[in-house]
Amino acid sequence: MTRGKKSVTIDLSIIHLLVVLLFLCYLSFWYSSLKIFKTTKELNRKHRIFFKLLTIGLWNYSLITLAFMSPDLWGQTRINLQLKEIFLISFMLLISLSLFWYAKRTIENVKFDVIFSKKTPEVIVMEGPYRLIRHPFYTSYIVTYLGLILLNYNFLVSLVAGVLVVDYVFAALNEEKKFLTSSFSKEYKSYQSKTKMFFPFIF
User: Fold this and answer.
1) Which of 22, 118, 159, 195 has the most crowded CB, counting CB atoms within 10 A?
2) What was the pLDDT predicted at 33?
3) Is the pTM of this model over 0.85?
């Protein structure tokens, strides 16, 4: 998959901004796996390893590609992106970071189970970003991965990012199923009727 556009000269400071935003997203998401979510031994080990390898591979490829896309790294660099695309990707990463840390602050005293856990939910959070969407952390990840697709724009990256996005969608559906079969089912159904899964007023 390649762009049918001519390369344009982009000032290096803009690339630096994109690198910083991407690296902050990487650190934030890694932090969530260590500090925000409770790990459990019940998870499918092969699935967990596969998921981590895909995630780490995608991030490393994106960061390396962005950092070393030109031998003229310390002056100006030529990339196959238009300026408006650079700003769109940067905006998506800013939205992702803001949503991630807003959600993290909202659940300051709550520790959720890690993705794909089979444990029964212990609490429903309805404050902060949860007032509009039910899975703000997943939304943050999905928005970032969509940004990575725009940034790298090749079939393999799109495939890996797409697999991860689908994984998050299935994880969210699985979590909702657990809520609907728990003691919170009535409360959660009411909550579902007032919110969207990932994107306010849309989906």
Assistant:
1) 22
2) 72
3) no
Structural domains of the chain, with CATH: 8-194 (1.20.120.1630)
3-state secondary structure of 115: coil
3-state secondary structure of 182: coil
Sign of the CA dihedral 112, 118, 119, 124? positive
Closest CA to 71 of 12, 14, 23, 17: 12
- Cα–Cα distance list, 181 to 80, 171, 176, 189, 198 (Å): 49, 16, 9, 11, 21
Report how far apart, in Å, the C-alpha atoms of 44 and of each of 112, 131, 172 are.
18, 32, 17
pLDDT the model gives residue 101: 94
- Token pair, residue 99, equals 């949503």
The series of mean pLDDT values per 10 residues for the chain, 203 residues long, is 50 76 86 69 62 74 63 45 82 94 87 71 89 95 89 80 88 90 91 95 84
Whole-angstrom distance, CA of residue 51 vs CA of residue 32: 15
Tokens of 43: 């998870």
The distance of Cα 192 from the centroid of its chain, to the nearest Å, equals: 22
